[in-house]
């Protein structure tokens, strides 16, 4: 058995091969640019949505602080109202007892005038 040597000749690039290679490269680069579309609109929309969420969270925190402050103010005012109501109730009791004393003193004065006039 004899082994035959094969000789390999280098391939020469023909103009047709070069043209096919260039066409293949052009098609490949065109299809990549078409599939790699710009995501700038989505990035912009996501950033706007993120900013809107941040704004809403800030507003909510501000409103929570205002509500807490208002609740504290209401609690203080309710305490003041309760004090005024208690003071009013005490003053009304004082008025009633003073009216009773006044009526007694007025009757005593009337009787003193009557007895003086009777002399």
Describe the structure.
The structure is a single chain. The chain has 119 residues and is mostly helical. The protein is 84% helix and 0% strand. It contains two helices and no strands. The chain has helices at residues 15-35, 40-118. The chain is rod-shaped and about 175 Å long. The relative contact order is 0.03. The mean pLDDT is 86. Residues 60-101 form a coiled coil. Keywords: Coiled coil. Residues 34-55 are annotated as: Disordered.
Question: What order do the helices and strands come in, and which of them pair?
Answer:
Elements: H1 15-35, H2 40-118
* Mean pLDDT across residues: 86
Instruction: State the secondary-structure class.
Output: mainly alpha
The helix/strand order is HH
Helix content: over 70%
Query: Cα-atom Rg, whole angstroms?
Result: 52 Å
Total beta-strand segments:
0
Individual helix count:
2
Low-confidence stretches: none
Distance separating the two termini = 178 Å
- Describe the sheet with the most strands: none
Residues in β-strands, percent:
under 5%
Which geometry do the CA atoms define? rod-shaped
């Amino acid at each position: 058995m004899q082994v035959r040597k094969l000789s390999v000749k280098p391939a020469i690039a023909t103009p047709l091969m070069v043209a096919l290679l260039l066409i293949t490269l052009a098609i490949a680069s065109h299809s990549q640019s078409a599939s790699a579309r710009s995501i700038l609109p989505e990035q912009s929309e996501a950033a706007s949505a993120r900013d809107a969420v941040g704004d809403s969270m800030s507003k909510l925190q501000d409103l929570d602080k205002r509500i807490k402050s208002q609740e504290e103010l209401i609690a203080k005012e309710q305490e003041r109202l309760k004090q005024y109501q208690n003071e009013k109730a005490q003053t009304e009791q004082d008025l009633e007892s003073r009216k009773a004393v006044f009526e007694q003193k007025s009757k005593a004065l009337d009787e003193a005038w009557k007895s003086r006039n009777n002399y």
